[in-house]
Design goal:
The complex is a heterodimer of chains A (656) and B (159). Chain A is of the alpha+beta class and 656 residues long. Among the domains of chain A are: 73 residues, Alpha-Beta Plaits (2-Layer Sandwich); 272 residues, no CATH class. Chain A contains 21 helices and twelve strands. In chain A, helix 2 crosses helix 4 and helix 15 packs across helix 19. By secondary structure, chain B is mainly α. Chain B has a single domain, classed as lithium bound rotor ring of v- atpase (Four Helix Bundle (Hemerythrin (Met), subunit A), Up-down Bundle), CATH 1.20.120.610. Chain B is built from six helices and no strands. Chain B is elongated, with a radius of gyration of 19 Å. Classes of the chains: A alpha+beta (656), B mainly alpha (159). Chains A and B meet through helix 10, helix 15, helix 20 and helix 21 of A and helix 4 and helix 6 of B.
Amino acid sequence: MAIVKMNKISIVGLNSEKSLIINDIMDLGVVEISSQDAKLTDPEWLPYVRKDGNEDKVLSYDVKISKVGEVISCLEKYDTTKRPLFSTRRNITDKEFHNKLLQGFNAEENVTRILELNKLLNELSSEENKAEAVIMSLRPWAGYDIPLEFSETRYTFIITGIVPSGIEIGKLKNDLDQQTDRCYFKLTGSDKDQHYISIIGLKREKEEVLEVLKQYGFNNVAFKDLEGTAAENIVHYEEKIKEIADEKEEIEKKIKEAVTYKQDIQILYDRMVIERDKVKILGNILKTDSTFYIEGWVPERSINELEKVLNTYRCWYEASEPAKGEQYPVLLHNNRLVEPLEAVTELYSLPSSSNVDPTSSMWFFFILFFGMMLGDVGYGLILVLVCGIAVKKYKVEGTFGKMLKTLFYAGISTMFWGVMFGSWFGDGVTAGAKVFFDADFVIKPLWLNPLDEPMTVLILSFAFGLIHLFVGLGVKAYMLIRDGMILDAIFDVGFWYLFIIGPVMLLLGGSLATAGKYITIVGAVGLILTQGREKKGIISKLFGGIMSLYGITGYLSDVLSYSRLLALGLATGVISSVLSIIGSMGGHSFLGAILFIVVFIFGHLLNFAINALGSFVHSARLQYVEYFGKFYEGGGEAFNPLMKKTKYIKIVKEEN
Amino acid sequence: MELLLNGNFLAILAAAIAAMAGIGSAIGVGLVGSAAAGVVAEDPKKFGSTLMLQALPGTQGIYGLLVAFIILNKTGIIGGNMVELTTVQGGLFLAASLPVGIIGLISAIHQGKVAASGIMLIGKRPEEIAKAMVYAAMVETYAVLALLASFLMVNGIQV
């Protein structure tokens, strides 16, 4: 339960040293500089200070960054080297980083060049598309041998157009013939939507001809800006497309050659981001003519570090505890075992700074529930291997890395439950032994098979649920006591404990039943007397108390919700045994063995994927809904210190 | 008419009804899939997260299959030698298959709707995928409870 304690830090320094101080703060990466807009409207501050910062400069950096980003993604398209499964940041020493900057390396030139090439490429592509569109539109007219620009002679008119394909051409022709015998009609092509026709007639009869055509749904087609026959044009544009393709190839070759600069360009990108952030943070700083004012948050444990840096400058600073009830940015800190599960907390919402970090208290339950729902040695092994290798080999950072580590632990728990339930790829190992060696090889569950004794597992699920809920209530009590509200802890948590434990003991029966009865009564009376305490008047107090007993239904449904531990476990197990049955259909033979292998691999992969997802979602749900519901309050702002937020490289300090 | 009173027929009918939860899953997964395609068209990187949401309404079909399988196993169809069942026994199987068949079918459709809306959510705010998944999982609770009800009933029938 660790939300890192923050101290408020205020710094006043000289403008001449400002950029140096900001540089050093950024290197430390432990100070969040918060926005001071509120002070700008405060009459006490207003006469003396104004806002620092240069939004135009930030904007121009942003434009540059997006251009460099465009270049990188363009290069990535042509980069043929094998990319690792997970992209991680390259390590680079700060010396190397600065050397790169000093050399004034030609990354910037390359960026401009590649941008131009890319633009050219896009233009060519759009030209290519245009040419293709023209060819498409001309294809049906390939048989039309009059140059397209001719639309009339002195006495005749020429029109081209389309009629729907449902029209009978013979009938159309007949109608035309009846109207006039001085009209030339030609069908140049048809497809499934329309007929393509051309007509030559006398100008003075044009109206009559058009009248007939209109009845058949004729639409005029005009060829703009084209000369020569359709066939000639098609040939011309096909040649053009070829030319474009050659040009494109040329340019792509150039871009491919530039791929070697990718790493330098990535460094350029990260440098730009760092510079942008330095300028951007000025917007949160106040200044006078010769001094500046910074206010922000720093973790208590990092204050010494910060002081050491600040002492080298001529500046004044002060660190103080947050005022009572003041919300501060939230940074979680847990030991190495629990830390990965912070990802699950973050997915929900960070705790507000007055709440507690639920990560460590739910760690055990999350892992336990996940394992129980997936519950298979084989599947657990897959999780352990895949996540273990990914974490070790690729050093994945951030939320995704935490998630992988969480799944690694979940995999261990899955294997544990697999051993307890005797599930090794369901009964896949047994079935495999039968198919391959015609041997009876049964792995006995260490505890029981949930298919045989579902009630036992169901009761165990409920018991886990009760414990889980009790821990949740316990955390609530902890918070109340921490905030000095001991009576509230007794009323709101203690009495509920009694009122839940009592009925459970009654249900268990035997010698516990009598004790359970009294515990229930004490709990119920306590709740009736205290739960209405915020209401006014004796009657509404009592009424509120009695109504609160209805809350037991909420606990009942919470507990029943844990039945999913059994149900999802059954789902994994039964599908596995279906797979074994299908796989064993070929019996003990060569073909049978092949069938078994195929079914085994694909079937179990699918079953694993679906059930691992289900186990994760439902394990998270039990935390989010049942557990968090008892005490948790999200909505904390994440601690966002000024630091080098690089994307491609990780600048490490060189050890001397 | 004689067929309708045949215990074995009723047991197979029960398995069929249970497996029909798959109808709901097919509709639900379909709903999510078409919503997901729209989001992925904008940003292909979201394929992974949308796929996870799409898989959620698929579980009801699995629950249905699960109960169907247990019925078939219990009545010996899978082993190849079906036991002779009385009309009452067959009827019991039929009754036991109803929760997962009906609730599974309906809840999968609704879960699909919720997950499809979740797709829209991660289209705008990809970091909120956990919330989208939990919303969908809320619906699934009732399918889980139905599965449990059906399972316990089938498990309790004496053959």
